[in-house]
Write a structure and sequence with these properties.
The radius of gyration is 22 Å and the shape is elongated. Strands 10-9-8-7-11-6-12-14-13 form a nine-stranded mixed sheet, with helices on both faces. The protein has a five-stranded mixed sheet with strand order 2-1-3-4-5, sandwiched between helices. Helix 3 packs parallel to helix 4. 25% of the residues lie in helices and 23% in strands. It is of the alpha/beta class. The longest helix has 15 residues. Strand 7, helix 8 and strand 8 form a beta-alpha-beta unit.
Amino acid sequence: MAQQADITAMRRAVELAARGLGATSPNPVVGCVITDASGDVVGEGFHQRAGGPHAEVHALREAGGRARGATAYVTLEPCNHTGRTGPCAQALIAAGVSRVVYAVGDPNPQATGGADTLRAAGVEVGQGLLEAEAEAGNIAWLTSVRHGRPFVRWKYAATLDGRIAAADGTSRWISSAESRADVHRLRAEADAVVVGSGTARADDPHLAVRGIDGAVQPLRVVVDTEATAVKPGARVLDDAAPTLIAVADDAAVSLDGAEVVRLPRAARGLSVPALLDALHARGVRSVLLEGGPTLAGAFVAAGAVDQVVGYLAPVLLGAGPNALADAGISTITEALRLDVTETVRVGPDLRVTAAPHPTATLKGA
């Protein structure tokens, strides 16, 4: 059984890893804490940006000579390969660390094997400590490696009776200023923000991150099947962040200021798997789906929603569009069951986070 000191150190490593959210893609977020024989923390670090030193290297640099004989707590199995940086397993061995505890095994076939390398060098290795917490913090990268597609988080804001707009189409603002600010945090953590043609026409959204210092701007993606929703001068075409317009492979396009990707049509709009494949090929490992009910329904129907974040405002409308349109579910037995993982007050609103029940079968997973 893990000692409390081990749990405390690993929980700190999980907290450190979260500091890299939105800045490390296509790499994982990783945190590392090093303690000496007395249990005192002598080094901390986290992976700050893709191509930069890994968490273990930052922590070892801070620890210096005090790393010899120490224990390193790492949220992900230390890597075992040389990419843009050297293998962390070898760095830990060279520093004289005597014990390594990691939370989640590395599923990347190019990087795995660090634990075996450490053991072969005589380092004591433990695994699985706070695995669930560390996996939750790194779920986007883990999903992309395990399933070969980006992690998709669907975000919406609605009234308590499930409406995202009034009967006349007005929707500003259903949620509070605090909730809207929180959405920018979600954008800052994502590699891409995706909306559909309906949202593009109705709202002319900007989709860039605001109010968060140092945020890496996500790729702005508009699913514009017929290439008619994004017009010259649209806010999404400015230079605040890169933009990608996804259109049908037979659509006529004449648009400056954005990259265009052509995708096959589906029964409704574009092929969601093809869109995710195109994004994954561009290094996108996490998607924030901010589109309206039609696009959300297409993603749910394709089994491509990994997490739902709903901002529920204490408001009633009684009429107007629902948060989710046709998702291919015709009977209660086909309902996509979710497990609620968090409920938090955000200003006057309630933010509910949920994920498909483990027994649910996600297409493409």
